[in-house]
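pls design
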C-alpha cells in the first residue's frame, strides 16, 4: 500500500496528477492520494497514519525568473516544509524511517 501527497487543486496540478489518479482508480486499496500543504503544520498527519516509511522528496521549486529573494522564496520554505514533515513523522507512531532527498538544483543555495 502506497500513500502520496498531491500539491494543490490548480488545473495544472490536476492534469499532472491524472496518471496517479488513474492508478488509484485501477488499483483500489494499493495507492492512496492525499492533499497537503508543505508549509502548513500538521498537513501530512492524515497521509502518514499507518505508514512505516516517509520519503520527503519535494521542496518548493521556482524558475529563476520567479525568484525575487532566494532566501525568502526558496530556502525558508524548504526549511519550513522539511521541519513540518519531520515534526509530523516524529508524532506518528507508525513511522519508523524517514528518507530525505535533495537535488543538484539546491547547490546554488549552499
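designed seq:
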Amino acid at each position: 500500500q502506497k500513500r502520496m501527497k498531491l500539491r494543490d487543486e490548480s488545473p495544472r496540478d490536476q492534469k499532472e496528477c491524472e496518471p496517479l489518479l488513474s492508478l488509484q482508480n485501477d488499483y483500489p486499496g494499493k495507492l492512496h492520494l492525499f492533499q497537503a500543504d508543505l508549509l502548513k503544520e500538521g498537513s501530512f498527519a492524515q497521509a502518514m497514519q499507518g505508514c512505516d516509511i516517509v520519503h520527503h522528496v519535494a521542496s518548493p521549486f521556482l524558475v529563476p525568473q520567479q525568484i525575487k529573494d532566494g532566501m525568502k522564496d526558496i530556502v525558508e520554505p524548504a526549511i519550513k516544509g522539511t521541519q513540518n514533515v519531520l515534526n509530523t513523522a516524529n508524532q506518528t507512531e507508525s513511522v519508523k524511517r524517514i528518507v530525505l532527498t535533495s537535488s543538484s538544483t539546491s547547490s546554488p543555495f549552499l
